[in-house]
Amino acid sequence: MTQTQQYNFIGYSSRIAWFWKQAGAFLIAMFTPSWRWMIVLAGQYFMFQAITIVSPGEGALLRWQGPAGILCAIAAFALLWIASHNQLPIGIQQIYEKISHSLLYRLIQMSWIIAFFITATNFAAPQVADAVSGNYRVDAIAFIHMDIDLILHGVNPYTDNAAFWQALQRWPGETPTPVLGARAFGSNPLNYPSIAEREVVIHQILASNEKTTTAFDPRTVHNYPAGILLLGAPFIWAGMPSLLWLNLLAFAILIFLIMRRALPEQRPSILTAALLNPAVWNYTIFVNYDAIVILGIAAAWFFISDRRASAIMMGLACSLKQLAWFFAPFYLIAIYKKNGWKAAMTSGLWMFAAFIAVNLPFIVLNPVAWFQSVLVPATDPFFPLGFGPISLALSRDIPFGPHILWSVMEFGVWAGLIAWAWFRPISNNDLPLIAPLALWFGWRSPMNYFAFQPMFVAHNTAEKERAELVAAP
C-alpha cells in the first residue's frame, strides 16, 4: 500500500469512526430526553390513556370511564402546555435537578422509552400491509380514494351519491358512519351500532335493488373540501394502490421541518417524542388525512415571516380538511400581533384565495352540492363519539341534552379562546397548541383532532430557543 493509499484509508476510517460516534451519541440522546420531552412523553401517555379508557369512544360506558378519561385528557393538555414553556416551575425544577443525574432515573427513563416503542410498534406494524395494498379499513380513507377515481373519470364527486355504495362494495372491510335516529339504528345515543350491526344493514341494502336508506348519509362519501382530492389524484393516476403513503410522507416531512428548525441538542428528543406517540399511529396515520393537514398548518407557522407563502400554505391546509378552519383565526391573530392590521388582512386575502382556487371548479359546477357536502360533519345527526365531555354523557354522569347545545358549547369555547388569544399581550407560536381545544367540547371529539399536539410543542419550543439564541449577546 502506497503512502497516499494509507492516508486515504486512515481518512476514510476516521470518517466512519466519526459517523458511528455521532450516531451512537444521537441514539443515546433519544433514550435520555431532557425534562421537556419527558413531560411531552407523559402528556402523550395520558392522551393515549384518555381514549383507551373510553375506547372505542362510542356507545354506553361504565360510570367511572367518563370521569377517568376526562381527568387523563386534562392531564395531557396541562402537561403539553407546561412542556411548551421555557422553564419548569421553580420547585419542580429543583427536584428535577436532584434526581435527573441518578442511575435509577436513567434506568426508569430508558425503560419508559422502550415501553413507548413497543406500544407504538404494536399499533403500527399490523396496519402496514393494509397501507401498502390499499385495503382500507376506515371510510374516511376509502371515500377519498373513490372521489379521486371519479375526478380522473371526469365526474364531479360532490354530486355522485351513488359512489357511496360503490365504495362499500369495493372496500368491504370499511364501515360507514351511522346516522342517529335512523330506523335501523334507533335514536338512543348510548346504542352506537357495532361494526357487525352496521355490516348487516349494509348487506341488506346492497342486496336490494333500491340503494336508499336513512341509516347512512351517502353524502359522507364526499364531505371533505377538494384539496385532499386534488393532492391525491396524481398518485392514484400513477397507479399507486394506496393513499396512505401520503400520510407517512407528510409525517416524515413534518418531523424533518421541526428538527431542522430546532437546536441540534433537541433533535434526538423531538424524534423520540414524534415516533413514539401511540395516538398518532393508532388514530391518525392509518385512519384519516390529519397528518397532511397538520403539515400544512405547521408549515404556515414555520414560514410565517414570508407572509404570502405562509398564508397560501394555511389556505391550502384549509382546503384539505375542515380541521384547519379552527386554526385559521389564531393564525391571523398571530400575523396581526406581529405585523399589524394591514399584514393580517393581506394574509387573510391570500389564505382565502388559495382555498377558493382549489375548490372553485367544484363550487362553480354545483355550489349547493359542494356547500352541503363540506358541511355534512356539522349538520348530520351522527351518534355522539369521543373522549371529551361527551364521554361523561356516554357514561351517564351527565345528561346528553340536545345536539345543538353541544355545538353552542363547542363554538362558544372556540370564541372564548379566540378572544383570549386576541387580548393577551403576546401571541404567536403557542397558538396552534390551543387552536383545536374547542373541538374537545363537541358532540363528536375523536382523538385524531389532538394526536399531533406534541408536534406543536416541539415547534413552539424550537422557535423560542432559536429566538433566545439570536437575542443572546
List keywords for this structure.
single chain; 473 residues; mainly alpha; two-stranded parallel ribbon; 22 helices
Description:
The chain is mostly helical and 473 residues long. The protein has one domain. It is 66% helix and 1% strand. The protein is built from 22 helices and 2 strands. Strands 1-2 form a two-stranded parallel sheet. Helix 13 runs antiparallel to helix 14. The longest helix is centred in the N-terminal third of the chain and has 31 residues. The radius of gyration is 24 Å and the shape is globular. The relative contact order is 0.13. The mean pLDDT is 87.
Short description:
The protein is mainly alpha-helical and 473 residues long. The chain has one domain (32-138, 224-471). The chain is built from 22 helices and two strands.
Number of distinct helices: 22
The arrangement of helices and strands along the chain is HHHHHHHHHHHHHHHHHHEHHHEH
Main sheet attributes: strand count, strand direction, barrel closure? 2 strands, parallel
What's the quaternary structure here?
A: single chain
Q: Which structural class should the secondary elements be placed in?
A: mainly alpha
Record field, number of beta strands: 2
Global geometry: globular
Strand order of the largest sheet: 1-2
Whole-angstrom Rg: 24 Å
Count of distinct structural domains? 1
